[in-house]
Design brief:
The protein is an alpha+beta fold and 95 residues long. It is 25% helix and 40% strand. 29% of the residues are buried.
Length: 95
């Protein structure tokens, strides 16, 4: 099974609309590890790793988003695999 790791940034109305929680749920459903967090500029940052097909499914989901979100575009790139596939997918909160 081919594996993939991506780092993405989601633009649009993606904060204060439960986007991170919905992203976490979708990533967990797909068996991915990684994290999601809000950035000060109003975007949401996502990093995930897992089966390549499932990472692609999450990328497709990110372009649609949660029910109240309005995604304008998603930029992403593939990064080096880290092999942390047993780690859960989590929400990072600002400290």
């Amino acid at each position: 099974m081919e594996r993939k790791r991506i780092h993405a940034r989601v633009h649009g109305r993606v904060q204060r609309v439960a986007f991170r929680e919905y992203t976490r749920r979708e990533a967990m459903r797909l068996g991915l590890s990684g994290w999601v967090r809000n950035l000060p500029d109003g975007t949401v940052e996502v990093q995930c790793e897992g089966a390549a097909d499932n990472v692609d499914l999450l990328l497709a989901w990110l372009s649609i988003g949660s029910p109240l979100s309005r995604v304008t575009h998603v930029e992403y790139n593939e990064t080096l695999l880290q092999g942390k596939t047993d780690d859960p997918f989590v929400i990072w909160y600002a400290s």
